[in-house]
Amino acid sequence: MYEKILLPLDGSDLAQQAIPYAEKLAGSLGSQIKLIYVRGPHEDKYSNMHKLYLQKIAEAMKSGAEQYTDKPGRDKIIVESTILAGDPAQEIVDYADKENIDLIVMSTHGRTGITRWALGSVADRVLRATRKPLALIRAKNIRPNTLPKNIINKILVTLDGSAQSEVVIPYVEELASRIKAEVVLLHVLEPSYYVFTVGGFNWDAYSEKQRKSMKAFYTDYLQGIAAKFRKMGITTKYQVIFGIVAEVIIDFSDKVHADFVAMSTHGRSGVNRWVLGSVAERVLRAGNTSLLLVRESGARTE
Q1: Does the pLDDT at position 44 exceed 90?
Q2: What pLDDT shows up at residue 291?
Q3: Which residues neighbour 66 within 8 Å (Cβ) at sequence distance 6 or greater?
Q4: Using CA atoms, how far apart are residues 233 and 246, in angstroms rounded to an integer?
Q5: Whose CA is closest to 138, among 106, 108, 169?
Q6: What angle do CA 57, 58, 62 make, to 5 degrees?
Q7: Taking all residues of the chain, what is their mean pLDDT, rounded to a whole number?
Q8: Three-class SS of residue 102?
Q9: Where do the domains of the chain lie, and which CATH numbers do they carry?
């Protein structure tokens, strides 16, 4: 499931903050790492510099990833590098398809700045266009070599009860079982619902009886999923919370000190709304936690 990991780099320190995460994942999962640098139309004269840059990163990542291998006889981690020319987002998406990449790992704060990466530039365009799972690493203005070895300890998985939202589960199962991470399952219930009246649509709050019934139902739902994780030896907790979905996810991920929020990019609100104005975008814009986004199989990309 994670045989090939793609790490796009742009030469900046901030983009390189994704490196320790790619190392951890590759070393723990036995994945091959593919590094790419997409040069612009006026960067031809720097080709040798870019090549040396990627070679240096590749050598460092080999030893960095191998510290996480848990089998003495396991083959050494393979790290390959490629320089491409063209539009960065398009080249990343096309390369991921061509090379059958299983996971794209990239920082949400590169040379264009965090707002543009997250809202309309490279990372956002990759998120819109790729069908590949995408790990978006929050840049936190710290040097990669100061990150602790155990950088992925806890994964928060958001589920809305739909089959579409559960697409992320197999990816989290393999990841958590191999890197020994704790999983926290979260379902968020809106405290009110739309009702149609003579004057149009209005919000109406659930009764206390309804709230208890809904909470009991989704607690049982999460309990069943948690049992499957636990059978795989994964420490798992679960929580049902009433509130505004994106706000609860952001606050709860901070509260439990999650290292990743894992979610499907095609839940009940549909892929367009997830990317353009609904839950995933709000979590991406306002949250503090790195994201693991998995697109529902067969979902359309824009």
Answers
A1: no
A2: 93
A3: 27, 76, 77
A4: 29
A5: 108
A6: 115
A7: 83
A8: coil
A9: 4-146 (3.40.50.620), 154-294 (3.40.50.620)
Q: What is the pLDDT of residues 101-141, one digit of tens each?
A: 999 999 875 444 444 344 347 877 888 888 999 999 987 64
Separation of alpha carbons 297 and 278, rounded Å: 20
Within 8 A by CB and 6+ apart from 69, the residues are 27, 28, 30, 77
Long-range pairs for 265-269 at CB < 8 Å and ≥24 separation? Answer: 265/127, 265/293, 265/294, 265/295, 265/296, 265/299, 266/164, 266/167, 266/295, 266/296, 266/299, 267/160, 267/162, 267/164, 267/165, 268/160, 268/162, 268/164, 268/165
In sequence order, the 6+-apart residues with CB closer than 8 A to the CB of 178 are 28, 29
More confident residue, 108 or 226: 226
Dihedral of alpha carbons 146, 149, 152, 154, sign: negative
Whether residue 210 has pLDDT greater than 70: yes
Over 60: is that where the pLDDT of 172 sits? yes
Whole-structure pTM value: 0.86
